[in-house]
Design a protein that fits this description.
Elements: H1 10-19, H2 21-42, E1 47-56, H3 66-82, H4 86-96, H5 104-110, E2 111-115, E3 121-128, H6 131-152, E4 157-162, H7 175-200, H8 207-214
Antiparallel strand pairs: 1-3, 1-4, 2-3
Helix pairs in contact: 2-7, 4-6
Length: 228
């Protein structure tokens, strides 16, 4: 017995999709709408604020040579690790009076500290559900980093170059991306369902189905008669 029934040619596929086009469109749009609504109303928004600090191991009036520049980069990396320490984060929470709202792990996970292109500038970025709190934490971390860094390194100066501002635009979730994912998922599921149902349906409707499912030759066909 041949296995032609396990395959479907392009023409049949196109006709099958046309036949169930309304179903495919409805399911696809439905998944997109559900994904969009869930993203907008079912997932908590997160907001990000960042501040920039500048570190310098030389005095303000001293020229910076290459060795000093490299030392500043090393110190910048040390400061980036320093502000993530529990002592600093606990002090941030206490001074902001947010002991009931924040904890060490939550702040540490929300904190991203990086040196900008291996320069003397360090960005401190905080991402939280409250935009005002995110900005407050970022600025407080920068303020507390100054004395801590001077105590533990040879820094001559560490200054806040750019204070964090409240950002009312959420950085996550991504509404457009999640909606697009929902649309693609809906399209895949609807087309997959249509194809699966077609392959599982062994009902004989045409002479072509006889050849496909029963592997029998067609000796002749009766012409269609109009109803009396």
């Amino acid at each position: 017995m041949n296995e032609n029934y396990e395959t479907i040619d392009l023409t049949e596929l196109i006709n099958l999709i046309k036949k169930h086009l309304i179903l495919i469109i409805l399911v696809t749009l439905g998944f997109g709408v559900i994904a969009g609504l869930f993203t907008k109303y079912g997932i908590d928004k997160e907001y990000s604020s960042n501040t920039v600090i500048y570190v310098n191991s030389a005095g303000k009036d001293q020229d910076m040579d290459y060795n000093t520049y490299r030392l500043n980069q090393i110190i910048a990396n040390d400061v980036a690790e320093l502000v993530k320490r529990k002592k600093v984060i606990d002090q941030v929470i206490t001074e902001l009076g947010q002991e009931k709202v924040l904890d060490y792990k939550q702040v540490k996970d929300s904190l991203s500290v990086n040196s900008i292109n291996e320069s003397n500038f360090i960005t401190i970025e905080v991402t939280l559900k409250d935009p005002n709190l995110a900005a407050a934490v970022a600025n407080k971390v920068a303020d507390l980093a100054k004395p801590e860094a001077k105590n533990m390194t040879n820094l001559e100066s560490i200054e806040v170059f750019d204070k964090a501002e409240v950002n009312k635009n959420p950085v996550s979730p991504n509404l457009m991306l999640n909606t697009a994912i929902g649309v693609v998922l809906g399209l895949m599921i609807s087309v997959g369902y249509v194809l699966l149902r077609e392959f599982m349906d062994k009902t004989i409707r045409t002479s072509k189905d006889v050849e496909r499912y029963l592997d029998l030759p067609i000796l002749g066909e009766l012409p269609k008669r109009e109803s009396l």
